[in-house]
Amino acid sequence: MRLIDPDAELEFDPDDVYDGPSRSQKKREVEALQDLGAQLVELPDAQFKRIELPEDLRAAVAACRKITQNGALRRQKQYIGKLMRGVDPAPIQAQLDAFNGVSAAETAKLHQAEKWREKLIADNEALTLFLNKYPDTDATHLRQVIRNARDEAARNKPPKAFREIFRVIREAMQKTD
């Protein structure tokens, strides 16, 4: 039996052996880029026109949107994935997230608007605070909608005014941004 001396130095350092991502990791990254390209293909026309893309990628996505045959569609999506490898995907993903309302800032704004709506319905003093923070808001309209929302809640009616308050709050918040 051979004993290993713990004080002896190793001939190689395990950290020096790492050559980069594994084949599996590279494949996952390529598939993620293809999925991002597929999301571009499925965008509505209005959003596709607004998104910023390199010209060759835009042309490939536009061509893919016209293809109906499955085999050709699959090959075109692979080609889009290949083009995506030469592009930084982060700005494209950020734009898609903004379209889908996924961005953290958008989510935070929605939560803040929901909190304002709850405060406005529950407390009359909240209206003064809201108008101080967002002075461009139509106070008369907001008061009326709050009264209607309270009335709807008391009578178990559909929440039409409840939704209208949210819309007014969002507009006021967007004006100040």
TrEMBL record:
The biological processes this protein is annotated with in GO are: assembly of large subunit precursor of preribosome
- Listed GO molecular functions? ribosome binding; rRNA binding
UniProt xrefs under InterPro entries:
DarP, DarP_sf
Under Pfam families, the record lists: DarP
Q: Which GO terms describe its cellular component?
A: cytosol
* Keyword terms, alphabetized: Cytoplasm, Ribosome biogenesis, RNA-binding, rRNA-binding
Q: Where is the composition biased (Acidic residues)?
A: 1-18
Q: Where in the cell is it found?
A: Cytoplasm
The record's annotation in CDD domains points to: YjgA-like (cd16331)
Q: Where is this region: Disordered?
A: 1-29
Top-rank taxon of the source lineage equals Bacteria
Question: What does the UniProt record say this protein does?
Answer: Member of a network of 50S ribosomal subunit biogenesis factors which assembles along the 30S-50S interface, preventing incorrect 23S rRNA structures from forming. Promotes peptidyl transferase center (PTC) maturation.
PANTHER family for the chain: UPF0307 PROTEIN YJGA
* Family, as annotated: Belongs to the DarP family.
Q: Which NCBIfam families match?
A: PRK05255.1-1
Report what the protein is called.
Dual-action ribosomal maturation protein DarP
Lineage start = Bacteria, Pseudomonadati, Pseudomonadota, Betaproteobacteria, Nitrosomonadales
| Gene name tied to this protein | darP
